[in-house]
Design brief:
The chain is mostly helical. It folds into two domains: 88 residues, no CATH class; 112 residues, no CATH class.
């Protein structure tokens, strides 16, 4: 978000690599002392990649690169790069659907020669790849949650409350302590609306302080399960298994 706002160049974020690595290693080592050395049962499952899986992974990486280059070189919104990536997937999905009958026929002939009845049975359950079906399975509750929070932050900005908060934090306090405090706040209020609020305030800060709020909001968002998009998404997907109290422990 700071990058999209044009406050920091893309390559400047690599300065945060070492601090981010330290923030990862310390809690990982602490958790390693208390969590038993066990593996989930899924590790032992025989997982077969579906047709086109590796190419879709490559398209995902290409989409990220397209979004970055779209903003850096063409000075266009990164969302255009992401939508271009969705176009990549649409074209490739169309190719997978049209070529599926020929692919199944070749595989049936090969598995028949090899006498692999298990693989022949698996071919019977193959369905055409559908992009819209994957989009429909997105966690819409999570997306609407972020939409609502960002709308609330925008409303607070229109009513002038964010201006008062900016005056209290960045004028009454030092910018360093203000950014650290907002990092802790992002553990309770998701880091996306916290960063959106800071960008809406538009405080006068140096490059170093913008990098600091980027780091603290990112790290602070992971202190509690409800502080990051990943935590909220996991709680939505793993209902009952991953809870707020479990993450707090």
């Amino acid at each position: 978000m700071v990058w999209q706002a044009g406050l920091i160049e893309f390559q400047e974020f690599f300065i945060l690599f070492i601090p981010s690595l330290v923030n990862f290693l310390i809690p990982a080592m602490v958790m390693g002392l208390f969590i038993k050395d066990q593996k989930p049962s899924s590790v032992y499952e025989d997982v077969q990649l579906k047709r086109g899986a590796r190419r879709i992974i490559a398209l995902f990486l290409l989409t990220i690169g397209t979004a970055v280059l779209c903003h850096t070189l063409l000075h266009l919104p990164p969302v255009l790069g992401m939508m271009t990536g969705l176009g990549y997937l649409q074209f490739f999905g169309s190719y997978l659907r049209q070529s599926l009958p020929r692919s199944l026929e070749r595989k049936r002939e090969r598995y028949s020669r090899l006498g692999d009845n298990k693989k022949l049975e698996q071919l019977g359950g193959v369905v055409p790849f559908d992009v819209f079906n994957r989009v429909a399975r997105a966690e819409w509750d999570t997306l609407l949650f972020f939409y609502g929070v960002v709308m609330c932050v925008g409303g607070l900005g229109c009513m002038g409350y964010l201006g008062l908060l900016s005056e209290a934090l960045y004028t009454g306090w030092n910018a360093t302590w203000a950014n650290i405090a907002l990092g802790l706040v992002s553990a309770v209020v998701d880091n996306i609306p916290v960063m959106f609020a800071v960008l809406t305030m538009e405080p006068e800060m140096s490059h170093g302080h913008w990098l600091l709020i980027t780091l603290t909001a990112g790290v602070g968002g992971s202190l509690l399960a409800i502080g990051s998009a990943a935590g909220v998404a996991v709680m939505g997907q793993a209902r009952g298994s991953y809870t707020f109290m479990g993450a707090l422990r």
